[in-house]
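Blinded run. Sample ID left blank on purpose so nobody reads anything into the name before looking at the predicted structure. Input follows.
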Amino acid sequence: MDVNSYLLVLVGFVLLFLCGNWLVRGGVELSRHFHVSPLVAGLTVVAFGTSAPELFVSVKAVFTESPDISIGNVVGSNIANIGLILGAVAIIFPLAVRKPSILNDWLVMILSYALLFLFLINEVLEFYEGLIFVFLIAGYIVLSVWSSRKHSAKSVEVFPDPTMKILPAVGLVIVAVLGLYFGADWLVKGASDLAIGWGVSERVVGISIVAFGTSVPELATSLAAALKKEMDISIGNIIGSNIFNVFSILGVTAILKPLQVSPRVISSDMIWMTVVAVLLLLFMLPLRNGVISRWKGALLLLFYIVYIWVLFVS
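Blinded prediction complete.
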């Protein structure tokens, strides 16, 4: 291991951060050109854009014989999204919860965790299980769009004007996808070398360093939403991203190549992932007037810090 490993990880982080945001921006601009509603754009373009780094990293890892980085990236990102990102945002901007419907999204997230645990009992995520995940994420998107349209049927749909011409928007998306590919490639290679050099498992590096790097777009999106006082978007983005991580990222990865999973992921990491999700629900209560206050955010952040400490010392 040499300085090149650290440079690969650093450059990979930067590319994933920049290109994840470029993909969201370019995709939203294209949706405006084609008069796709903000709702549909949010559920598809934005959700996929913020989860794209995890997808590229997981697919790259499984094809370079680093499956623990692939699964650890997703599980670690889901823990970081709630513990690190939502906790940090709540410390800066207490998050108000005004939509009881967010419980439905939380239940879908828990369902994705339960199915993942069930599918991984044999320590392999099979091709057909990946197909089930992909069908479920498609159904989730369709039902979310239908439900929102039903509740806003009497309102007039507003299509924001694009701020970028169509060709630059297409170019931005293409550049973002290429950047995500190379960013994922370099991050996985650098992280694998670091694991060898530090004498720790690829699972530990995947759950900590790689997961943090791929969660940066969610951090940027949640902070931006909180700054605009769109608190439900901030919380909803995190829950939606976690659902996408399990259903779409692991689903697509398993379809491309069955995913071998370390027993420690099932017996330890997934338990931590579920516990922090339950903490989030408790902290959101009551759902109509709940507030994730600064002290709750501090507890979520402390939970994440303790988890990373246990990860490295165990």
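Unblinding after everyone has recorded impressions. The beta strands are 95-97, 124-125, 259-260, 290-292.
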